[in-house]
Each structure stands twice: as C-alpha cells, then as structure tokens.
Write a structure and sequence with these properties.
Number of domains: 1
Helix content: over 70%
Largest sheet: none
Shape: elongated
Number of strands: 0
Radius of gyration: 19 Å
Distance between the termini: 52 Å
Strand content: under 5%
Order of helices and strands: HHHHHH
Amino acid sequence: MGTAAGLLAALIGSAWGAVAGYIGGQLDALMMRVVDAAIAIPTLVLLLLLSAIYTPSPAVLVLVIAASSWLSTAHLVRGAALRCAAGNTRRQSGPWAAARGARSRGTSPRTRSA
C-alpha cells in the first residue's frame, strides 16, 4: 500500500508541477496557490477528515496518503520545468555547473565577490 501511495503521489505531483511549470503565467500562479493552500492544511487534520468521510479500505488508505503527499513533488517538478522552459539544458545543470560557469567568467568556483 505504501508503494502504491508513493507512486500515485509522484504521478499526481509530477503531472501538476510539469503543467504549471511549462505553461506558466496565470495558470502557474493559480495552480501553485492551490498547492500552497493545501500545504497550509495540517497533514494529520487532512488525513483524519478524509478517513472520516470515506469508509476504510486499502484503496481509500492509498488515496488518503497520496492526497497529502503529492504537494512537495509538485513544487520540485515545477522548478525543474521552469528551468527547462527558460532554456537551461542538462549540460548547464548538475554538480559541475558552478565550476563551468566560474571558469567561463575567469574566476575560480570558490571566489566570492564582496
């Protein structure tokens, strides 16, 4: 049940974040406000409320856990989608991106300006 809830939460969060990030604009703002509002609801209260509304079963348990777990995934995927939509490619990201950027500016990666 945990695996199913995790996969469902990842699927919902990835789809929500990707749509918000790639489309952008007013729809992105609206979709992320929905996520922010849902994050503001305490998880325990949400789980108790959904459990009280629906009769307990394994499928309902999976849906209840997934309903509270997709929010952070949506934020992460949205950030990645915004980066991709802005033109950043895989070549510019990763653990060596800072070093490549600093090298192209003629400074070392650990040099900081005051």
